[in-house]
Amino acid sequence: MRHEDLTPPTSRPGPRRRPVFAAAALAGLCLTAAGCAGDGGQSPGSASGPASAASSSSPSPARSSAPTPSDSASASSSAKPLPRGPLTGRTVVIDPGHNPGNVDHTREINAQVDMGNGRKECDTTGTATNSGYAEARFTLDVSRRLRTLLEAQGAKVVLTQDGDRPFGPCVDERARIGNKAQADAVVSVHADGSATGNRGFHVILPAAVNGDGADTAKIVAPSRELGVRIAGNFVRVTGSAPSNYIGDDTGLDTRDDLGGLNLSTVPKVFIECGNMRDPKDAALLTSADWRQKAALGIAEGIGSYLKR
Asked: Does residue 91 sit in helix, strand or coil?
């Protein structure tokens, strides 16, 4: 979905023919950026609707009627001891976009919250494939897989939600969770809901925003570095090409209308892993094998950034 919006801020052009070199150039970043390709990883092996867990598909997380947890209680992290590895001492916050329970809490998620340079809905339900596979299920599945991969390298991983709350968190709280954790990197996992024929992934970077409680000056450059490394590894591991409708074939897009970025004080990016409303992209997004590759591509991009 368009993250915190049900509609994009501006109209997007239709699909363009992508030059072959666009995907190759991104993948090439892994060969030229120090420690990118293969770092600490394995070899690569809008509507609402029906989520999966760490293998194949699994039932949706149980929905609760409990009140929304406070910031301190909303972030979920693994309690098991972590192995020592190349990411030991690093903290990564993973933000699974939306929440499977949002659909049952429209009043709460429609409440306006601060986004740093204005106000916006707390959250949205997310999009879904035409067959009903919900973005919120996809993001939670990929995020759990990503947590497993990063923890295996010694990173402390915090999820902003793990199917353990009835809805949300709101976009401002998602930013606060990363800030409070003093995360070395934050990645918000999403899938887009655009027109058929619009294909590919893109990584969203924070714009320079200053005022009304937001100041991204210190995170713009490191966030871009994080985003570039994730994009390069995502191409290499998944074989997916950069978006043909956003980002001018670079796989990168800069925005100033997302509270999750505007309010962050630590390096943060969003990744739209594909377009759920395009049948070809949907076939990938609904594949457990491909979701594992997506998680691996993101994990290797994060690892490359943290070990640079």
From this structure: strand
Are the C-beta atoms of 129 and 35 separated by less than 8 Å? no
CA-to-CA separations, 190 to 13, 163, 242, in angstroms, rounded: 20, 15, 15
Closest CA to 286 of 1, 4, 50, 44: 50
Structural contact between residues 185 and 139, judged by C-beta atoms closer than 8 angstroms: no
Query: Residue 9's closest CA among 169, 138, 117, 140?
Result: 117
The enclosing H or E element of 191 equals strand 185-192
User: Cβ-count burial of 13 within 10 angstroms (0-12 exposed, 13-18 middle, 19+ buried)?
Assistant: exposed
- Among the listed residues 4, 151, 272, 300, the single catalytic one is 272
pLDDT in tens, the chain (308 residues): 444 433 333 334 444 444 444 555 666 654 434 333 332 222 223 333 333 333 333 333 333 333 344 444 457 776 778 999 999 999 999 999 999 999 999 999 999 999 999 999 999 999 999 999 999 999 999 999 999 999 999 999 999 999 999 999 999 999 999 999 999 999 999 999 999 999 999 999 999 999 888 999 999 999 999 999 999 999 999 999 999 999 999 999 999 999 999 999 999 999 999 999 999 999 999 999 999 999 999 999 999 999 99
CB 268 within 8 A of CB 190: no
Is position 151 annotated as part of the catalytic site? no
Tell me the whole-structure pTM to 2 decimals: 0.81
CB 196 within 8 A of CB 173: no
Q: Tell me if 152 sits within 8 A of 246, measured CB to CB.
A: no
